[in-house]
Task: inverse folding
């Protein structure tokens, strides 16, 4: 699965979305075809701010392979400032404190380990925005 | 539209360590053929629902394997895959092959063998029904997607934890009377609320189990059916729809949009309305799934499914009997077989042969979902 991961590294590491200049909708994960405009759509890349609010969340207690060491961990759908939603882990947060509407920001972290191949995958996670902090450390 | 169901067959659902994938299918298939009273040579084609033979048992080319082991070669055999909706889609392919005039008698089967491998591996395989690159890669499990839907449903509509538990309690109670069900154990709301957390707020007893099993139907055209029976059960409506594969891409995750589209098509073809449905087998892979289903199918208003469940409106004898078989939760969920097994239960209900759990219904419905709601397929049945 290494090629599949590698192809998306640019988007994963930098939170780059695509925006359709015809209808204005932003897509993350990036789409190569606008489902609203199809052939009339014109997609250009757009970097996202990485700031948003938790739309919904769960705390995972049964992990898939490669995630056992992280249990229990929070998975959320985050609604970003630009209006798009993204699925990600929430870190630096106690599972008892997470809530819908919580303000979060993207951070760059280790996602999982593939023991057999000896690989470590990196990408975005989100953490709560600290009151009063500038919050843009990545 | 009218397609006859002239035969049904099931295996018991559960852990069948002593039976192979093909043993299970042949067992259900032989029962369906005997039930129909037909000869193997009457069958013209077969459609098989199977989610992941390749990953669960290291076997692809399921279509050929099944035709071979069932002794039905050289008839054409086609495998259909749409994650947990594979069985429902196989049924739809069979229905369309008859309505098109291509065939007069076809077999529709569904089969899955999930217990030959470790549970962690099964968890990983089931997560392939989600978006591998943008959900599963990040640590998403299949229960976690439904957990996020449940959390949002509770947030927007005030659906309670107890209401979710009541879905499971009802379905376990119904399964007590179903000899094919995986579980014959009544449970209480407290049992659900005290079971281990899987993906908060969902607990173990909110989740359907890992199961082996197979189900089979014999379909016939209206003319051909007369040769075998005077009173078949008719399939009078069929609908299918898609949504985004990733949950985060849906504008509104608390409404199962694909089911709204699929059921609209099925109701239109059947010339029926939600209020005409007396019994339904719906996709309760997780308790919240049944709430989403009874709302999107139009039995209850959006947001009122939890309350309707609490008021007993979905019990046998209620406004609409939902999952009299025990549903995926208590009957079991061998993923590829599920959509076909739902149809088997509705046929038994309309024939009055669902002993101990009969609903005396004339019109029934099946609702089968793939992934977190990316595929939905609905069929409507009427007593002959
Ligand atoms: Zn567009």
Result:
């Amino acid at each position: 699965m290494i090629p599949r991961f590698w192809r998306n590294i640019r988007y994963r590491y930098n939170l780059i979305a695509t925006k359709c200049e015809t209808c204005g909708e932003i897509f993350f994960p990036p789409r190569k075809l606008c489902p609203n405009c199809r052939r009339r759509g014109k997609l250009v890349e757009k970097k996202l701010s990485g700031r948003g609010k938790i739309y919904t969340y769960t705390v995972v207690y049964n992990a898939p392979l490669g995630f056992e060491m992280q249990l229990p961990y929070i998975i959320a759908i985050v609604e970003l400032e630009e209006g798009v939603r993204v699925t990600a882990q929430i870190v630096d947060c106690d599972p008892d404190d997470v809530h819908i509407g919580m303000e979060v920001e993207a951070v760059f972290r280790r996602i999982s380990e593939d023991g057999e191949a000896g690989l470590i995958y990196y990408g975005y996670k989100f953490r709560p925005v600290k009151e009063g902090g500038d919050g843009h450390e990545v | 539209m009218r397609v006859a169901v002239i035969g049904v067959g099931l295996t018991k659902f559960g852990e069948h360590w002593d039976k192979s994938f093909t043993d299970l299918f042949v067992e259900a298939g032989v029962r369906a053929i005997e039930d129909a009273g037909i000869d193997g040579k009457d069958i013209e084609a077969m459609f098989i629902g199977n989610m992941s033979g390749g990953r669960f048992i290291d076997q692809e080319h399921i279509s050929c394997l099944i035709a071979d082991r069932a002794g039905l070669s050289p008839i054409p055999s086609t495998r259909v895959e749409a994650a947990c909706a594979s069985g429902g889609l196989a049924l739809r392919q069979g229905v369309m092959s008859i309505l098109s005039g291509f065939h007069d008698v076809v077999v529709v089967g569904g089969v899955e063998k999930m217990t030959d491998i470790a549970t962690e591996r099964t968890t990983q395989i089931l997560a392939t029904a989600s978006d591998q690159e943008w959900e599963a890669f990040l640590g998403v499990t299949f229960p976690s997607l439904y957990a996020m839907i449940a959390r949002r449903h509770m947030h927007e509509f005030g659906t309670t934890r107890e209401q979710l538990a009541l879905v499971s309690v009802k379905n376990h109670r119904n399964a007590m009377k179903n000899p094919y069900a995986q579980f014959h154990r009544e449970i209480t709301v407290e049992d659900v609320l005290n079971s281990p957390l899987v993906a908060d707020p969902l607990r173990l007893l909110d989740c359907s189990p890992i199961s082996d099993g197979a189900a089979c139907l014999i379909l016939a055209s209206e003319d051909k059916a007369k040769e075998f029976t005077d009173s078949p059960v008719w399939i009078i409506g069929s609908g299918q729809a898609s949504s985004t594969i990733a949950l985060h891409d849906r504008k509104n995750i608390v409404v199962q949009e694909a089911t709204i589209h699929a059921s609209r098509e099925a109701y239109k073809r059947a010339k029926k309305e939600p209020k005409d449905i007396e019994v339904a087998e719906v996709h309760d892979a997780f308790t919240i799934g049944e709430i989403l289903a009874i709302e999107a199918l139009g039995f209850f208003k959006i947001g009122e499914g939890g309350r309707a469940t609490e008021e007993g409106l979905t019990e046998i004898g209620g406004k609409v009997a939902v999952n009299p078989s025990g549903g995926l939760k208590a009957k079991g969920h061998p993923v590829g077989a599920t959509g076909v097994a739902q149809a088997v239960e509705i046929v038994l209900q309309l024939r009055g042969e669902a002993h101990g759990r009969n609903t005396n219904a004339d019109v029934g419905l099946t609702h089968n979902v793939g992934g977190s709601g990316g595929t939905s397929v609905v069929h409507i049945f009427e007593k002959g």
